[in-house]
Every structure is written in C-alpha cells, then in structure tokens.
Amino acid sequence: HVLAAIGILAVILISISDLSYVKAIWRRQAQPHRYTWFIFLMTALVIFGSQFALGSRDSLFVFGWFVVVNLTIFCLSLTRGRGEGGLDWPNSLALVIALTSITLWFAMSSALMALVCILVADTIGITLSLIKTWRDPSSEPLMMWGLGSVAAALNVVAVGSPEWFLYLAPLHLLLCDVLMAITIIMRRKVVSVSVS
C-alpha cells in the first residue's frame, strides 16, 4: 500500500532526525527544554491513542516512534541538558496548563475533542522550546527540525483519508517543526550579525 510506504518513509526520516538529536544531546551540542519534552512525551502517548481511536492506521507509525523517542529525550534532558526548563513561574504555569489539557483528554467522551486538548498541550510544549531557541538558537540543531519538517509533511500525505480530523495531529506536527526550523535559521542570522 502506497500510503503505508509513505508512512514508513516518514518514520525512517524522523528516526534519523531524532537519533541525530539524541546524539547531539549526548555530546552536549543540543540543550532540550525539559518541560517541552515531558509534555511531548505525555502528548505523544495520548495522540497515539486518539489517532488509533479515530481510525488512523498508516500514519500511526510516526506517533508510535514519538512515544519511544520522547521518553529518551526527556530522560536525556534531565541528565545531559544544562537546566533549561527550571521551576520558574512561566515554565510551571505552562506545565500546569499543559497537564490540565492532558487531564481534560481523559474526561472527554469524544476522541476528536480529546485530540484538540492534547494539541493545545503540545502547542504549549513547543512554545517553551521556541522561546528558548529564540534566546539561544545554537541550543537546537537545525537538522533535527528541518528533517522533521520533511518527515511531518510525508506523514500528512500518509493520512490519505477524506476525514479532515485525521489531519489535525500530522498538520500540527508539521507546523511545529517548520516553526522551529525557521526560528533557528532566522535567529542564527541575527545572532551572527550582532556578534560580527
């Protein structure tokens, strides 16, 4: 099946991207935001379940991989990071809002509304990393987010369904990866000009 092959190709690309990120964290060349990756881990678990409940199959490969890799990156952020994601009030507030959204997922009888709650939490998670990256664009590797963007675009194609709601999570992922890549590129240019 062509859509399954596209989904698998997306997993291969995102796996290469994620493994390069794990390697960069291990070498202390990337500094993941702890709250971001904790939120991503929680949302990956719920998105996988929601997408499955909504009937998605071929695009589930990517979300299954996210559960595994987000757990790994979160653990590395605790041991190999430089402390991004401390207990200050903006991070704590973001975490409370994200966890509230995740909790609402359990209360929803609709898989679609549950997915929306999770996408809100995920948006909070990526926002924390976007703010961090805005301040320090060298803290995130462009390869991870650039290759992730390509993989996310393939995952959108892998949905292959007339049901619009099945595109929500894959499109959200694409938007997040593209925003991170653009932020890295734009801020590195600004930082390099100001240093010169």
Verbal overview:
The protein is 80% helix and 0% strand. It has 7 helices and no strands. It has helices spanning 2-26, 34-54, 60-79, 89-107, 111-135, 142-159, 168-195. α1 (2-26) runs parallel beside α3 (60-79), α2 packs parallel to α4 and α5 runs parallel beside α7 (168-195).
User: Main β-sheet, in a few words?
Assistant: none
Question: Pairing-aware structural class of the strands and helices?
Answer: mainly alpha
As a percent range, the share of strand residues is under 5%
| SSE succession | HHHHHHH
Q: How confident overall, as mean pLDDT? A: 86
Helix amount: over 70%
**Which overall shape is indicated by the principal axes computed on the Cα atoms?**
globular
- The CA-CA distance between the termini, in Å, is 52 Å
Number of helices: 7
Which spans of ≥5 residues are poorly predicted at pLDDT below 50?
Answer: none
- How many DSSP E strands? 0
Cα-atom radius of gyration: 16 Å
Key traits:
mainly alpha, 196 residues, globular, single chain
Compact summary:
This protein is mainly α.
Q: What's the structural blueprint in terms of helices and strands?
A:
Blueprint lengths: L1 H25 L7 H21 L5 H20 L9 H19 L3 H25 L6 H18 L8 H28 L1
